[in-house]
Amino acid sequence: xxxxxxxxxxxxxxxxxIALTGAGISVESGIPDFxxxxxxxxRYDPAVYAxxxxxxxxxxxxxxxxxxxxxxxxxxxPNKAHYALAELEKLKLLKAIITQNIDNLHQEAGSSNVxxxxxxxxxxxxxSCHSEYDVSDFSLAEKKIPCCGSCGRILKPxxxxxxxxxxxxxxYSSQRYAENADxxxxxxxxxxxxxxxxxxxxAKINGxxxxxxxxxxxxxxxxxxxxxxxxxAGRTLPELLKYISQ
Length: 246
Ligand code: NAD
Fold this sequence. Notes:
Bound molecules: nicotinamide-adenine-dinucleotide
Radius of gyration: 18 Å
Shape: elongated
Structural class: alpha/beta
Number of helices: 10
């Protein structure tokens, strides 16, 4: 109770609050994180199936995982945590969301300033001629691997695989937001995947208050986090919103 009150007070006084979100915020929308038993990542080892080397060597094999990933993300709907962040933006308290998720759920919940740090499953890209496509241009339900209309190469979702660089614009603007933030909400991330995990660390060095929302303690909790709010994001974020609106 005290933590909610204290956090609400900090947020009301903030001038440049941002949020960093991870897979945990979308678990209640039915998208498994890396730990969810029986989820996508239980069946497809991310070290193999989410690696750019694997995609280059054998795109057909990796597309087995991609078909499922796109099906899961396109079926999912935003949950109460996504809507709570959209509401914080409407209240002019949240300046930007930097998300590691590729599911487009923040945008679907109504957030307008979202940095897709690891890309988005809505688009496909040709690694050879760089042509871009909307995923809806293809009928992926039939499990036909999409190819580039210009050069014929197998397309890749414009999500960042392990071994690929973060898009320059996302990297640059996230760094600027992190340096200028006075409060960072860190939600549903294990904070071990870099460079995204560096964002709260950069913000903290520059004086930001770090408020973490997670089911369990993470790498950040004891050394970096100022306030740790434990629980599912679909419960804790709407609860916090109530305190802010009081
Ligand atoms: P992670 O799987 O490493 O960690 C998820 C974190 O969320 C854990 O700390 C877990 O305790 C917490 N969590 C789980 N359910 C929660 C809930 N209901 N409320 C609050 N916290 C909850 O995820 P990560 O740190 O984001 O790193 C995984 C990488 O995999 C990211 O780079 C991301 O791009 C990708 N990924 C994305 C999606 C997606 O788009 N939804 C899903 C899986 C993985």
